[in-house]
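Figure caption, in words: inputs first, then the predicted bound structure.
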Amino acid sequence: MDGGGVGAVADRLRARLGPEVLVRDPVELATYECDGLGHLRAQPGLVVLARDRTDVAAAVTECARAGVPFVARGAGTGLSGGALPRADGVLIVLAKLRRVVEIDLDSERAVLEPGVANLAITQAVAADGYRYAPDPSSQQVCSIGGNVAENSGGAHCLKHGFTANHVTGLEIVTPDGGTVRLGGKAVDPPGYDLLGAFVGSEGTLGIATEVTVRLVRSPEAVQTVLAGFADTDAAGRAVAAIVADGLLPAAIEMMDALAVTAAEAAVACGYPSGAGAVLIVEVDGPAGEVAADVAEVESHCLAAGAFELRRAEREADRAQVWKGRKSAFAAVGRISPDYLVQDGVVPRTALPEVLAGITRLGAEHGIRVANVFHAGDGNLHPLVLFDADRPGELEAAEEVSHQILALCLAHGGSITGEHGVGVDKATAMPSMFSADDLDTMQMLRCAFDPDQVCNPGKIFPTPRLCGEAPGRRRGVHPLVEQGLAELY
Amino acid sequence: MDVLDALAAACPAGGARRAEPGDAVDGVVPRVVARPAGIPELSSVLSAAADAGLAVVARGNGTKLDWGLPPTTLDLVVDTTAMAGVVEHTSGDLVLRALAGTTLAEVQSLLASHRQWLPLDEVVPGSTLGGVVATALSGPGRHTYGGVRDLLIGVTAVRADGVVAHAGGRVVKNVAGYDLAKLFTGSYGTLAVLGELVFRLRPLPVARRFVQHVVPPAELSAALGALRRAPAAPTALELARRGDGPYVLTVLLEGRPGPLEARAAELAGQLGRPERSDEVAPPTWGALPGACTLKVTAPLAALPGLLDVAGRAAVAAGVAADLRAHPGVGTCLVGLPDDVVAVGEVLGALRRFLGGTGWATVLRGPREVRSTLDVFGPTPGLALMARVKAQLDPDGRLAPGRFVVAA
Ligand SMILES: Cc1cc2nc3c(=O)[nH]c(=O)nc-3n(C[C@H](O)[C@H](O)[C@H](O)COP(=O)(O)OP(=O)(O)OC[C@H]3O[C@@H](n4cnc5c(N)ncnc54)[C@H](O)[C@@H]3O)c2cc1C
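Bound structure (flavin-adenine dinucleotide present):
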């Protein structure tokens, strides 16, 4: 490490790559101040608009040399501040690396640059009867590199799995600027599953410069059931019955009355009127099985008290059913000036209790909460509504949002099912993991990034100093005590 | 205090004893064996081992101790069989939490009464969950259900220094923190000792049908292509070939009895009339072939060529290969006799054929074969792996020499 800071990195990169890849103009820099978690902002010291893997490796190498932190950015849709830049660091933007390198249908793989949009993969292979399975709601824009970093899911991951289940190969630029290939089109490379550990590491172990994913056959048949219930309890009973019967739908989504009202106002999705809860159940597979599954799903819904049932078999009808669900986040803007999106997970069987708890929390704090969630896997997305212009409301909303996570943990759940920890939830990590757990995770971090230049300050509330003997750290580190190192 | 006393004090319930010749791990006899009765005892045992600087190998039912390489040194075997039992199973959550010494068979019989299963084929009978995870062992069902890495959602492991660490959780969807469960899966006990494991489950299928077709070698590629485009949606595929015989393709279909018949009929339309159709698996299903088994992975499109190369290389080396491939996953097991020269030649031919697009390793076999040949072969990312090992086990005391990283 030779010091010199961002200025030195900028000079060297200008010389190595040419001025056109660098952004230092304050107005342009402002574009990169935040990701999808808009209330946290920082102006990056320097932005590198990488054109290819060579640019990425050069930028990382210079950062490592100067000891300057760097942050990768894909499409910037992350919801936990993972791509939040640093004033004393470099933001490496991968949005221009959008080449579909190879589609190999015979091997059922696609090889992609990291900036390729999630949906673009399916679009490239749909005509051949294939698709890329993980489908985050942000799929039109979010990048495959960002998906890898966040281990993104989607409504259909209940049956079809998350990003981690569909990535078989990565090329990564390690935090020292070197390049390593992990896996490829074939599965099970010898040695430790570093690929598995990298997926979901939120940009803290290096930058993915190429991603190889599985392509899967589109199912022969897909049918979607929309059911209206009096309340979330009844809808929850239907979910439990479907699962207990041994059915595994591709997706089971629930929206409560407030979320339905918002979606109706925004996109006129035509959901059953007066519903206290709406369930969307999608079944896919061989046609004969799907027909039988749908009949069973419908009978479970009726038995649980559904007052209206609709079955969508044609593509256009299914799109109409999904329209309300997919627009739900944005739609709450219609019923509230401001809102916080929470992302927590509970065991599916705890859903009724947790939903009741959320209602109670909202009432206690005078805050409305709209619930839209992946009921099949217990992944809640409570939307906590508030008006920032009313004194005290933001604080009350934040408190409710915070308490919801505590409720999830109390039921044996998780603080995040798909949006990641980032900066947003780093301080919540100790409520889910012990100091020893976090210390052990950071050993992996130290193996990849001993100088902690790669997206520092994310995931972990306190960094681990990598040089020390493992497992023997107790109390405040001497370097911190002496003011020689900073805990951030 | 004598090491044995220290270990006995560390696990009063489970006990510790002096090792016997039968405790040898791949030919290397330890000094002592400790049998912790739970995670707190496991932690105390590993702390005591750290204090005494002992080299440690964890052992479940000992069904796969001849996998990987023999330990370079060994003092202590940690027997996990007293650390057994299902801790939690809420059937409505389709999640199971169990201690690492529990056998897969025990778990399956418990789950069957709830019409559920942990969708992992029992490739080696008697395997404990810990052994299955440490070797990342899965069978043909991986095609649909994923491998161990895809099913393991939480882990409690004990580090070389005795510290207990958790990662993941008890819910099927969770992205909080690093996924150490994946890191430990297939790490052959070289990074930590597994204590408790949490898996996602699946409902048991209502009905199963194993449909077998005989495919002449010249028609293999076409048959696999037809199968890939078929709407029958197989749960799993297994392709078997012995010596220079024809290929036998087994297709597993799962679903409801009625639609299942229709799908099987549809498949017959694509592949011709089946040789055999049964509700129970053929005896070869998921089993490891040969006295020595190579595991080869390749891009799916390369599989027919790979099988051909394996068969020919075996003939050239004067032996018959027993091939078992999973064409939708891209894995192939090559069963060979206990003949180090022949195994070496087949391994070399496979690595040349793959040229870095896939990997050929010696999965198991006689010690002479494994200690003579390059068991793991070229390993991309080895330097990074060595750094991971150095972080988690800086003194190199966990299963030293058993896996890719020499320490
Ligand atoms: C409206 C909306 C709906 C959403 N719905 C879903 C959903 O259904 N499911 C879901 O899981 N998420 C969802 N998200 C969250 C978000 O879209 C995902 O996390 C997505 O994967 C982020 O991709 P990105 O390209 O925007 O990444 P960014 O926001 O740019 O970055 C996210 C993180 O990834 C890192 N990163 C980016 N590229 C790389 C790379 N090449 N190598 C290493 N690290 C990298 C960054 O440093 C950062 O830590 C939603 C977001 C929005 C705004």
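Residues 86-203 of chain B form a domain with the Uridine Diphospho-n-acetylenolpyruvylglucosamine Reductase; domain 3 fold (CATH 3.30.465.10).
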